[in-house]
Every structure is written in C-alpha cells, then in structure tokens.
Amino acid sequence: MNLIFFVILFCFFIFLYILYFLSKDDFVMARKDVSIERIFNLAFLTGFVTLISSRAGYAVFTHSFQYFNPLVFLAFPYFTGFSLIGGIIGGSIFIYFYSNYKKIPTGRIIDLFIMAFVSVLPIGFIINFIILGGKTTTFFNLFFVFSLAIYILFTKLIYPYSARGEIKDGSLTLLFLSLFSFFYFIIKLFLDIKTFSFLEIENIALLVLLFSSLIILINQEIMDKFLSKK
Question: I want to staple 161 with a disulfide (CB 3.0 to 4.6 A). Which of 71, 96, 145, 166 is the partner?
C-alpha cells in the first residue's frame, strides 16, 4: 500500500486548521458575512476536486492513460500517481468559479486558500522525507528548498500586506502561481536539460500558467493603482 495518499490526507487536515486560523479574523470575510462553515464547505469540495485533477494531471502529463480506468483511478492508496501542478490548476479554477457562483469574495478567498497551501507544502515534503528514510531525489530536494523559501517569503513579507489590504485581493495568488510555475519549470529544465522538451504537455501547462498569471497580475496591479489615483 502506498503511503503518499495518506500523507496528502494528513496534510489536508493541517491545511484546514491553518485555513481556519487565517479566516476566522479576516476582516473581508467578516464584512461580507462569509461564515467559517461556508469556507470549510468550499475547502472540502476543493480538496476533492484537487485530488481528482491531480490524479488526472498525472495520467495526462506522464501518458499513463491506464489511470483513467475507474478501478485504477480511484484506488488512491494502491496506485501512486499525483501531479502537484494538476492539483493546483484544478483547485484554483474550481475556487474561482465556485466562489463567483456563491457570491464569496473570489480574490480574498483564493488568497486564503493559497496561504494555507503555502504553509502546509513544506510539511508534506518533511513527512515524505521521513517516510523515504532520507532517500530522496535531486528534484525532491530542490523543490523542498523552493517550498521553504516560498513559505518564508509569503508569511513574513507578502501576506501581511495582503491581510492589511495593501495589495489587491487575488494578487497574492497570482504571484504564487507565477513563482511556482517558473521555478517548477526551471528545476525541470536544469535537471533534464539534454532531453528537455518545451512541447511536453506538463511544460506547456507550466508556461501557460506562468504567463497568464503574470499578465493578469501586472494588469490587476496597474489598474488598481490607476483607479486609486482618480
């Protein structure tokens, strides 16, 4: 039985605790009368969608189409195979459309979700490191360092500005998506430079995520400053 699924499950409960801690005193959620119950309902739905999109992403990115067999796809503890990029893309899209549909402040709620994710990401790597008995790959080690750096950067520098409303809601998420896709892409390129292909499906997804999030972020911040001057 593969333990990765149980690591993901454990990290999800830590994620819920951090999300609760971030949401309970958030002034935007309080002003819009968005209860913790509604946030947690969204969290559980997003967790399910993220799990499915992570699994589907793995099948597509690695050409493991046997995973689309329902008996294999749903046997999470027995057949390893999850894509972090697939989960992030699927989860982010779901939060965007669902929060719009339910009239929840989209930019703010997705920022809270991303901050909880950023906080739990290094924990997941540490647990995996312990399970693997210290036997890790170069990719694992580089990405762990990246996740730790992102955690420090966002918790100590970026989130305080977001919490005080000094940057536009949603900008934190867009910045994370830009940094995540850029460094994920660079790490893959660095480790596999001889056989690296820009036409690989996962690399195309990373580039689309990188440039789309950067364009939206720059446009959003420029427009916010322009409107604030009027």
Answer: 166
CA separation, residue 139 to residues 118, 121, 215 (Å): 18, 15, 28
User: What is the pTM assigned to this prediction?
Assistant: 0.91
Torsion of CA 219, 32, 46, 204, to 10 degrees: 0
Residue 132: phi and psi, rounded to 5, are -80, 0
For 22-41, what is the mean pLDDT? 90
Contact 119, 151 (CB under 8 A): yes
CA angle 99, 104, 108 (to 5 degrees): 95
Q: Which of 75, 48, 73, 77 is nearest to 58 (CA)?
A: 73
The secondary structure of residue 77, as a DSSP letter, is T
150-180 burial code (b ≥16 CB/10 A, e <16): bbeebeeebbeebbeeebbbbbbbbbbbbbb
- pLDDT band of 223, cuts 50, 70, 90: low
| DSSP code of residue 158 | I
